[in-house]
Specification:
Layout lengths: L1 H25 L9 H9 L2 H21 L4 H24 L5 H19 L3
Helix pairs in contact: 1-3, 1-4, 4-5
């Protein structure tokens, strides 16, 4: 079970980091669906985006391993809620995105709900 917990933590950090990297790589690009080949090429040649895609792949592998030992009703809420917190903090730290008290309160409620649901999963 310890290895599964480590895999779950790795998966959620990889997933959250991948989201932020892709956002960082995409935020200043001017893309057009009128030129799909050029748009795809621009995305695929973008370093942060490609790093994000690699992390998404690593996330899937680690999460699959975690799910072999941890019930999905426990793993998924942890994955999504902790991922939200990590994304919020990374976006603030790396891209200067604003965090409001309302957002922090919402994350606290979500995390509290996950604790409550997970504690009843047996």
């Amino acid at each position: 079970m310890r290895n599964a917990a480590i895999a779950l933590v790795f998966a959620l950090v990889a997933n959250a980091t991948a989201n932020v990297l892709i956002r960082m790589g995409m935020r200043d690009l001017e893309l057009s669906l009128a030129r799909p080949a050029e748009t795809i090429k621009t995305i695929l040649l973008n370093g942060p985006v490609m790093a994000g895609i690699v992390l998404f792949a690593a996330n899937v592998l680690a999460y699959a391993f975690a799910l072999s030992k941890i019930r999905v009703g426990i793993a998924y809420p942890i994955m999504t809620s902790c991922g939200l917190l990590i994304v919020l903090l990374l976006a603030w730290q790396l891209m200067g995105e604003r965090i409001t008290l309302i957002q922090l309160g919402g994350v606290a409620l979500i995390l509290g709900g996950v604790v409550m649901v997970s504690s009843q999963m047996g």
